[in-house]
Amino acid sequence: MHWHLLGAGNLGTLAAFYFGQAGFAVRLAGRSATRRRLTLPDGTVHDLQLAGDDNAPITHLVLATKAAQSLGALAPLRARLNADTTLIRLQNGLGSLDGLPAPSPHIIEAIANSGAWREALPGGGEHVHLAAQNPTLFGDGHSTPPDWFAPLARHWPQLHWRTDIHLQQWLKLSVNAIINPLTALHDCDNGALLTDTALHPRLHALAAEVDQVASQLLPDWPGDTAGRALALAHATAANTSSMRADVRAGRVTEIDFINGYLLREAARLGIALPGQARLIAEVGALAPR
Ligand code: NAD
Ligand code: KPL
């Protein structure tokens, strides 16, 4: 079985490494061959040669671009994808494949909780550092995973198949919708959301808006987005959130696929979210869209 990889950044490199370890051939989609170095949290260093695109039909694809890059990156590949293609969407946020022209591939949603960053390698290529190895969840709503999942999970630490992936995505989206924009706006690390109590009224109001929408969409919604966001801010206190990092670097943020997705779902339900709308506008003023 051959896998193509679209987006050989932090998570794409990690996926290429674990797929390779599991014995699957991986090559880039839409890009020529390149090299990656990967340092794992145990200090081991792995050099990868990523094969360039072969322009063959794509049967299995890992999409690991930033959410906003998805449709643009997939556009030149459309003729090579079909309804039998399996696409793993290894991204934060939701809705990045909305508007993908038919026939839609079979999409497996993935939630990564690990933390990775990268730097240029002298002489070309990139060096990805996996700073924290945490659970990764895959799912497509079915209880049985595809045949390739078991060998992959033997090599990818803490990789789990989840039947309730949709709920898990919303649980992640809900906390990202609080921590990421607030830390971007106030240019603070995640832990400051606990210590800066002046932010708490806003944090609670934003979280209540999230709960209002999610509880209508998901029968098992547990509520208490504020409590879960504060607990995650505590667990990742020293982290710079990905949105704060994007704003600082002048990159497009993923707010349209986190808070923006929430707002679109709320509008579909006829619910107004004034706090979230203001937050999106404020972050939008800091970063390119
Ligand atoms: P990244 O910027 O490191 O990687 C994206 C890659 O996509 C880059 O290598 C870029 O060159 C490539 N790309 C962009 N457009 C392309 C195109 N048209 N064709 C081919 N390649 C293209 O991003 P990342 O940190 O790996 O994040 C990917 C997703 O995973 C995001 O949604 C992010 O929020 C999520 N995530 C990241 C982390 C982390 O620790 N880095 C953790 C959890 C979730
Ligand atoms: O997912 C994150 C992000 O920064 O995108 C958290 C968990 C909030 C860690 O910073």
TrEMBL record:
Residues forming the Ketopantoate reductase C-terminal domain are 164-284
Q: In which pathway does it act?
A: Cofactor biosynthesis; (R)-pantothenate biosynthesis; (R)-pantoate from 3-methyl-2-oxobutanoate: step 2/2
- GO MF term list: 2-dehydropantoate 2-reductase activity; NADP binding
The UniProt record lists the keyword Plastid: no
Question: What are the GO BP annotations of this UniProt entry?
Answer: pantothenate biosynthetic process
Q: Name one Pfam family in it.
A: ApbA
Q: Name one GO cellular component term.
A: cytoplasm
Keyword entries, A-Z: NADP, Oxidoreductase, Pantothenate biosynthesis
Q: What class of enzyme is it?
A: oxidoreductase
Q: Where is the Ketopantoate reductase N-terminal domain?
A: 3-140
Which reaction does this enzyme catalyse, per its entry? (R)-pantoate + NADP(+) = 2-dehydropantoate + NADPH + H(+)
Which family would the database say this protein is a member of?
A: Belongs to the ketopantoate reductase family.
Question: Function of this protein?
Answer: Catalyzes the NADPH-dependent reduction of ketopantoate into pantoic acid.
Full protein name: 2-dehydropantoate 2-reductase
Q: Which organism is it from?
A: Isoalcanivorax pacificus W11-5
